[in-house]
Amino acid sequence: MPSFFLCPISLDIMRDPVTLSTGITYDRENIERWIFTGKKSTCPLTKQPLQPADCDLIIPNHTLRRLIQAWCTDNASQGVERFPTPRPPVTRAQIVDLIDEAKSKSTQSSSSLVDLLQKLKKIATESERNKRCVESSGAVDFLVSIVEKDQEATSVVLEEALNILYSLQISEQGLIQLLEKRRDFIDTLTVILQRSNYQCRAYSVLLLKSLVSVISPARLMSLRDDLFMEIVRVLKDRVSYQATKAALQVLNKISPWGRNRVTAVEAGAVSVLIELLLDEPEKKGAEMMLMVLSLLSECAEGRAEIVGHAAGIAVVAKKLVRVSVVASERAVSVMHAIAKFSPTPAVLREMLEVGVVSKLCLLIQVDCGSKTKERVKEMLSLHARVWRNSPCISPQLRSSYPSS
User: Fold this and answer.
1) Could you report the per-residue pLDDT of 210-248, keeping only the tens digit for each?
2) Tens-place pLDDT, residues 186-208
3) Coil, helix or strand for 27?
């Protein structure tokens, strides 16, 4: 097979050859995966920097494609199949026309607008290249304007707009520009979380997860209290698996800043997390819940909620071993905060009775991180007078109890 018919990134026959600004020709699928999915900014072969990822800067090489098709035809007797002419990819101009048409329909029939939004969604979900092309065509600003008109939009229109915004997986720079231009957009999403159906709430919290990843600490410290309440409500309502995961990631990102730990506790996060942990069979979910609970245990209000919950200490104790190394680390972090800063006689007794102390002794024997072991030993040494000789600890585990 002639080497010039092969894709430089793989050994497949080029089916849709395209040429970059560096003059090198690649198969479209491979080079688009390199640029848009792999987020590479150099030519794979020459290592020259590429222009900013733009869907219209990858030029089809029609001459080479016809030569390859002709070669396939000439070698049909050897089992080589001729591939059909590739469908031309969507261009930025086509997307701009679609957005302009949707804008004209936004003040008319909602069903017509929904149809156009669904066309835009279909384009965006076809490939990573299309996502970036849709984003660079001004779609984000248009979709956000629909979302901000929440009270006038039908739930179907709102749902489609939120769905596309989430599906686009907007680039980091795009998210920053969105927040700079639409400074109240997080407040808009908070309102949607308060008023809308489960699907819109799910898309909103998924968008929030992306947005908080680019927000400055100063702005994170000024988030409104009702946002925390709505994030917690998403967890409580168990809107969807994806929404629960996103809500946990949002809390994990925003809780460390300013007074946010206390705000999250006041919104009811601790009790909801404990209830979720009672039923959580999945390792990753338990790790994320314990991570947030660990953050909240760093404030007095969080510790008070954990020890005040009937199942608080018991459910964290259950996750100390046999879940994962990460879960053990986070559960130990929660227990360490309680044992060090909230060690009332009743709390120390409960930690004995529900098996916390036995599991801490077991953790000394197993392979876990050095920081985790240091915390375990500190807790056991700190309360040795109360715990060391307790009949709640088996003789085998008592032998692991630190001597000092």
Assistant:
1) 999 999 999 999 999 999 999 999 999 999 999 999 999
2) 999 999 999 889 999 999 999 99
3) strand
Could you give the CA distance from residue 12 to residue 147 in angstroms, rounded to a whole number? Answer: 44
What does the block give as tokens for 87? 């469908």
Q: DSSP string covering 8-25, please? A: TTSSSBPSSEEE-TTS-E
Contacts of 341 (CB under 8 A, 6+ apart): 300, 303
- pLDDT tens, position by position, 360-369: 999 988 877 7
**SS3 of residue 60 by DSSP:** strand
CB atoms within 10 A of CB 383: 18
How far apart are alpha carbons 233 and 356 in whole angstroms?
A: 30
CA distances from 258 to 222, 245, 261, 264 (A): 8, 23, 8, 11
d(CA 221, CA 10): 48
pTM of the full structure? 0.84
CA 214/CA 170 separation, integer angstroms: 11
Question: 49 in helix, strand or coil?
Answer: strand
* Helix H or strand E segment including 156: helix 155-167
CA 199 to chain centre: 17
Angle, alpha carbons 45-50-56 (nearest 5°): 110
Residue 124 near residue 89, CB atoms below 8 Å: no
Q: What's the alpha-carbon Rg for the chain, to the nearest Å? A: 28
Concatenate the DSSP letters of all residues of 82-148 into one string: PPPPPPPPP-HHHHHHHHHHHHHHTTS-HHHHHHHHHHHHHHHTT-HHHHHHHHHTTHHHHHHHHHH
CA atoms in the 13 A half-sphere facing the CB of 366: 17
- Distance, in Å, from the CA atom of 294 to the CA atom of 297, rounded to the nearest integer, reads 5
Please check whether residue 113 is in contact with residue 145, taking contact to mean a CB–CB distance below 8 angstroms.
no
Q: Determine whether 2 is exposed, middle or buried from the number of CB atoms within 10 Å of its CB (0-12, 13-18, 19+).
A: exposed
